[in-house]
Design brief:
9% strand, Glutaredoxin, single chain, alpha+beta
Length: 207
Amino acid sequence: MTAAAPIDFWFDFASPYGYLMAEKIDALAERHGRAVRWRPVLLFAVLRALSLPAPLESAVKRDYMLRDFDRSARHLGVAFRLPEGFPAPTQHLARGFYLVDAVDPVAARRFALAAMRAYFTEGAAIGDMANVARWMSAQRPSLGDETACLEALRGAEAKALLAQAVDEAVRQRVFGSPFVVVDGEPFFGVDRLPQIAAWLEGTLGPP
């Protein structure tokens, strides 16, 4: 019997909604015997390539979203505190993820979730390369100590892996975070969790 295709979970590390989905998607998928492929990207780069505005560019939309982040977290029962200086740069974190993912996808998910929890509950500096390198080494010691991980983050491989992910996100028309693709069906936003569950259960109904 052929295993079902993995669920693609696209997100930006600085996205509160992406963080909320990260806390829920693996458990939901596991209940239905599905695997999840975590795919962090730089959302601003994807949106720019798609000629779309940044999510917080509109003051009206920004005011609403800043209110909704906390409300959505409370609704989902997830600890959340909007960090100072939000949103943070995430290129180093995304590159670190793909370096870990290349050798250990399970450790990469631990790395991603630990970083997002540190950012969205403690205000950790996720844009700091030293922090990223330390988290990489902690989750996958075979990558070396903090110094070795820092060197890897500055290398061509890390940049190429993230660039490939961004290019793929553009091809897949990933226009927000989180963006989940199940069996070719796209779902945008953490509020689509009930629809994703219905799709996996086969109860969504025909189009």
